[in-house]
Amino acid sequence: MVLALQHHGMCFRHLRYGVTSRLLEALLQTNSAARTGVRGQSLDVSARHGTLPSNFSPCRHRDNRYLWYRFHKISTFFAMSINQAAPPSPCMPDAIIARQCRHSLLRVIAGDLTRYEAEVAVTCASNRLAGREGLDAKMHAAAGEKLREACIQIGKDQRAQNLQPCPVGTAVTTSGFDLPQKHLIHVVGPDCRRPSQDEGRRELIVKAYEAMFEQVANLGGIDTIVCPPLSMGVYAYPHREGARMTMEILLGWLDGEEEPGIKDFILLVNDENFVKNLKTVYRESEDQFPGVDCTRQYRTRRY
Question: What is the per-residue pLDDT for 29?
Answer without folding.
Answer: 54
